[in-house]
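Record 1 of the preview.
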Amino acid sequence: MLGRTAVECTRDPLADRIGRDVAAVALSLPPQTRFLVVDPFAGSCNTLYWILRHLPRSRGIAFEFDPNVYELSKRNITGLDRAIELIHGDFGSLLDTCDLPSRDALIVFVAPPWGTALDEIGGLDLRRTEPPITDIITRIGQTYPGHQILFAIQVYEKVNVESLTELQTKIDWSTLKVYDLNVPGLNHGILLGSRGWKPGSGQTR
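->
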């Protein structure tokens, strides 16, 4: 693995837990729903793989801007037992060109580089990642307004309250899960948020 993917790769125990929780929520949609899982910041595609592994009737599409990471991950995923299409380029400029079937529900794993967004006191500011997570949610929602979307946003144990409140205005439902894989205060988690439907309510747009 390249140095960048070794550092940023979500390790199997965490990716497994994320995949299980994503699937548990997504499968509250009607039986036989098909899922397209989108990873805008692919890296090694490890979390995408685990989500697909736990989610039946699913396929993946991922975007990677770095040419070296793209070539490495492309070779690695050829031997996997899951259908993943890896696209070289920036998801922001390529997402509009993708033909995403309207009948498929979208699962979007959102894990951009945190950069300076993480403050040990204030928590992870969802408005200061690179690019801002709040902007990503808005962009995808505007691009695919007719889809049922489940966002799976990788977060830290503590999230900046103001940024969380701002993000929640852009979605219909959300829940935060933190995984006890490290010592308290140093754990990662997942913020699940839906748009166009509410898990367990039977309501869809």
